[in-house]
């Protein structure tokens, strides 16, 4: 019995794990990528857009790439995490002299609005970078709240953060945007560090993908070597965390997650800026509390 694939717009800041997420998305028949929208985060937006255009070509994706926000709603952009994602945002992968074409016309947030209005009730927004483009889309067109099937966000931390003791990078990069997106009233599923940190692509599994999964497997291995080295140094891990893949895996294998329903608040001030906290009043927001990390990693490898 065949099901119509879920239409997905991927809002992304490529990024090593963003590249792994695109590899996963390409291979899942349940998901149909409509467009890629880019945002600052793992690098400046010019670099993340160049990386998205490179990945589109390398993966043979026939979708538009729209450039989005260069910085947060308020204030300057923070420094790029070159110690994690490399100088070029893709783990210093050799891009083979790739010369990027221009991005497709139209600002990311405008294209999000247009796509949702064209396919009312059918589009899932998967945001795996800072939430600035989604906040700008809401500001331009509040009516999209009632026309969006689901918003899935890789972001937040209810335990330890990864850029401060309290905050995760995507939320911390634009807390005001995150607050706007999480309180808009549309159905949101938040996939925080509490779920993603258990989902590790081991170095042995990455090496196996390089041998057995064609060019996609080689890309998954090669793009993630510096990322895995950073995790070895900072977390003592034998491998790298599949943060962004985990958000997409939620759409395909929700059985691998435990969840909590209730609003999420974002701290906007002081040392806890960017911290996420849960409450228990009724809300269309769902948070993944845990993931079966070994099963998510195995699912990723089987998919590739």
Question: What does this 3D model show about the protein?
Answer:
This protein is α/β, with parallel strands linked by helices and 304 residues long. 39% of the residues lie in helices and 18% in strands. It is built from 13 helices and twelve strands. Strands 3-2-1-4-5-6-12-9 form an eight-stranded mixed sheet, sandwiched between helices. Helix 2 links the parallel strand 2 and strand 3. Helix 1 runs antiparallel to helix 10, helix 1 runs parallel beside helix 12 and helix 4 packs across helix 5. It is globular, with a radius of gyration of 18 Å. It starts with 5 loop residues before the first strand and ends with a helix.
Keywords:
8-stranded mixed β-sheet, globular, 39% helix, 304 residues, single chain, alpha/beta, 13 helices, two-stranded antiparallel ribbon
Write the layout of secondary structure elements.
Layout: E1 6-12, H1 16-27, E2 31-38, H2 45-59, E3 65-66, H3 82-85, H4 108-118, E4 123-127, H5 132-140, E5 150-154, H6 169-173, H7 175-182, E6 188-191, H8 193-196, E7 200-202, H9 203-212, H10 214-223, H11 225-235, E8 239-241, H12 243-252, E9 257-261, E10 264-266, E11 276-278, E12 285-291, H13 293-303
Parallel strand pairs: 1-2, 1-4, 2-3, 4-5, 5-6, 6-12
Antiparallel strand pairs: 7-8, 9-12, 10-11
Helix pairs in contact: 1-10, 1-12, 4-5, 5-7, 9-10
């Amino acid at each position: 019995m065949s099901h119509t694939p879920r239409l997905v717009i991927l809002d992304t800041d490529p990024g090593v794990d963003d590249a792994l997420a695109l590899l996963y998305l390409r291979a899942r028949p349940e998901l149909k990528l409509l467009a890629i929208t880019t945002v600052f985060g793992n690098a400046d937006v010019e670099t993340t857009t160049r990386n998205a255009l490179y990945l589109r070509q390398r993966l043979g994706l026939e979708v538009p790439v729209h450039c989005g926000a260069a910085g947060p709603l308020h204030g300057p952009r923070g420094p790029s995490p070159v110690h994690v994602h490399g100088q070029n945002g893709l783990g210093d992968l050799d891009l083979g002299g790739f010369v990027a074409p221009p991005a497709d016309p139209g600002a990311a947030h405008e294209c999000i609005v247009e796509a949702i209005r064209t396919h009312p009730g059918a589009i899932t927004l998967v945001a795996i970078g800072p939430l600035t483009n989604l906040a700008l889309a809401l500001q331009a067109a509040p009516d999209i709240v009632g026309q969006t099937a689901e918003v899935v966000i890789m972001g937040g931390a209810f335990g330890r953060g990864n850029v401060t003791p309290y905050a995760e990078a995507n939320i911390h990069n634009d807390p005001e945007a995150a607050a706007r997106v999480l309180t808009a009233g549309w159905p949101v599923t938040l996939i925080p560090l509490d779920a993603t940190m258990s989902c590790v692509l081991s170095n042995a599994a990455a090496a196996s993908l390089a041998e057995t999964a064609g060019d996609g497997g080689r890309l998954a291995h090669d793009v993630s070597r510096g990322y895995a080295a950073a995790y070895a140094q900072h977390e003592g891990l034998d491998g790298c965390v599949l943060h962004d893949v985990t958000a997409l895996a939620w759409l395909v294998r929700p059985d691998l997650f435990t969840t909590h329903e209730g609003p999420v608040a974002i701290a906007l001030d002081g040392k806890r800026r960017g911290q996420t906290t849960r409450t228990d009043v009724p809300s269309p927001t769902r948070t993944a509390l845990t993931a079966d990390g070994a099963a998510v990693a195995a699912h990723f490898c089987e998919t590739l």
